[in-house]
Amino acid sequence: MASIAAGKSIVSDAFGDKRALRQALLALQRGPISFQRNNIIACEGDAVDYIFVVVSGVLRSCKTFQNGDRKVIAFYLPGDLFGWDDEESSFSVEAASDAVVMFIKRSGLMVLAGTENHVANILLATTMTELRRSQEHALLVSRTAKCRVATFLTDLSKRLGCKESIDLPMSHQDIADYLGLTIETLSRAITDLERSGVLVRSSSHRKLLVQNRALLANATS
Amino acid sequence: MASIAAGKSIVSDAFGDKRALRQALLALQRGPISFQRNNIIACEGDAVDYIFVVVSGVLRSCKTFQNGDRKVIAFYLPGDLFGWDDEESSFSVEAASDAVVMFIKRSGLMVLAGTENHVANILLATTMTELRRSQEHALLVSRTAKCRVATFLTDLSKRLGCKESIDLPMSHQDIADYLGLTIETLSRAITDLERSGVLVRSSSHRKLLVQNRALLANATS
DNA sequence: CGTCATTTTGATAGCACTCAACGAAGGTGG
DNA sequence: CCACCTTCGTTGAGTGCTATCAAAATGACG
Predict the structure, then answer these.
(1) What are B90-125's pLDDT values in tens digits?
(2) How many CB pairs under 8 A join A and B?
(3) Any atom of strand C under 7 A from CB of B123?
(4) In chain A, whose CA is at the least distance from the CA of B83?
(5) Is 90 exceeded by the pLDDT of residue B199?
(6) What angle do CA B69, B73, B77 make, to 5 degrees?
(7) CB B220 within 8 A of CB B151
(8) H helices present in chain A, as ranges
(9) Rounded CA separation B212/B40 (Å)
């Protein structure tokens, strides 16, 4: 598979291309490994010593409560790297679609960060990006359903590269759990946006055509 | 004021006590500066080149929307340091109570982090702590009002040092905005907890007596 | 004691959830 | 190729939680 072959270089790309650094990173890499949708990559509470690099597909980080309901903390798209939260992960990491993932040994990377300033900077910058996203997300989940959905679609569109159509790479259930909504409310919000002339559903439920990006942006506030 | 005098040492404490490092940090420090409640320390959109260290009191990081409603992203208690999100802050930083704050020049600290491994580690660790908190917060705001309040009180109690009484260092309005509730719903949730025998209100609205910590923990789920 | 800010309580309305049924798409086997 | 099944998404009716609006109570402060 082409995307698997791309795995190695994705890691190097993320951290730059100095020869010595490349060598050091190679030693820390594992994978790439393919996962089918809904496969569990790391379990909540596991002591994970690996950082995840998404090669293709989408991962979700989520938490399931005793009463059975689940919440999605974040989605990770190709190119994203994440997972140095702690010794033990507080959330489980799962494949939201078929996905290919590279792994980097965290402890080794930390040592490397000690000598390679560049690596330390990337770790910090990536963590800050994720912090920012998480904070925006926390803001989002206490607004109206329509606003949450519009914002989600806008952000996703940006992260996917701003085409006029949005191919949802995860299920409605995943999106609903991410936005703190039920799938019914999510569906109704999309219907609502459709009626407002913002977008059109395609026959495949996974595809949305944005008709009026200004209106969509409007719905985010 | 004693707390102001403590400002300098708080910064050194956070970063360790090697003589050379202490010297370098001293050069980067500004303050301590006192702020009255509701004073704005940094405005949303400002290009802030300073990291904040809370000496005493409580700071809030928040965002105000066009329609006028405000949301609180996070509270920062004495000893917390934060604020290296980016070149321009996406949220405003304000005093939630009378507070004393130290400032550290960010750009200088970043340079220092390049040579001082120790400093880089602290930056990363602190950012990760905040990320973790933000993620938990995002989870929280889509649960029931009672659960949100109970969880908030539990967490605050932990951060303040787990006494049997909780002195709320911020207004109900701040808490409500943090939890994505109205002050009315917040008040009703507290009344609810009181009726369940979890806690008792004291005459001063800012003080709560936890009667049954197990019941409080129970209400968080 | 009076004023102001803050918190609490009450009545009502609205938004999102729950439960239920239907529809659409994709896969499997005959 | 079609019937069947399963999964996923959509739509509808009714309920419940939280917001809104309004007013009273409490505490802080001069």
Answers:
(1) 899 999 999 999 999 988 998 888 888 888 888 989
(2) 82
(3) no
(4) A128
(5) yes
(6) 125
(7) yes
(8) 2-15, 19-28, 106-115, 117-140, 145-160, 172-179, 183-195, 213-219
(9) 37
Rg of chain A taking only CA atoms, in angstroms: 18
Measured in whole angstroms, the distance separating CA B37 from the mean position of its chain's CA atoms is 14
Is the pTM above the cut of 0.70? yes
**A204 is near strand C: CB distance < 7 Å:** yes
SS3 label, residue B143:
coil
CA of B49 to C1' of C27 (A): 58
Which DSSP symbol is given to A215? H
Strand D close to A184 by CB, under 7 A: yes
Convert the pLDDT of each residue in A2-47 to its tens digit: 445 566 677 777 777 677 777 878 888 987 999 999 999 998 888 8
Q: CB of residue A53 closer than 7 A to nucleic acid strand C?
A: no
Instruction: Please report, for residues B163, B165, B189, B216, the alpha-carbon distance to residue B213 in angstroms, rounded to integers and kept in the order given.
Output: 11, 11, 16, 5
Length A182 CA → D4 C1' (Å): 30
Residues from chain B that touch A86, judged by Cβ atoms under 8 A, are 128, 132
* Structure tokens, B132: 């973790």
Start-end of H helices in B78-182: 106-115, 117-140, 145-160, 172-179
CA of B178 to C1' of D14 (A): 32
Spatial CA neighbour of B145 closest among B194, B192, B94, B113: B192
Torsion sign over Cα A25, A57, A62, A92: negative
Are the Cβ atoms of A124 and B128 closer than 8 angstroms? Answer: no
Q: Tokens standing for B186? A: 């917040």
Rounded to an integer, what distance in angstroms lies between the CA atom of residue A60 and that of residue A39? 11
Q: Per the CB < 8 Å rule, is A130 touching B132?
A: no
Spatial CB neighbours of B18, under 8 Å, sequence gap ≥ 6: B118
Cβ burial B97-133 (10 Å sphere, 16+ → b, else e): bebbbbbbbbebbbebbeebeebbebbbebbbebbbb
Report pLDDT digits (tens) over A102-145. Answer: 999 988 998 888 888 888 888 889 999 999 999 999 999 999 99
Contact A73 B114 (CB under 8 A): no
Among residues A205, A215, A143, A154, the alpha carbon closest in space to that of A179 is found at A143
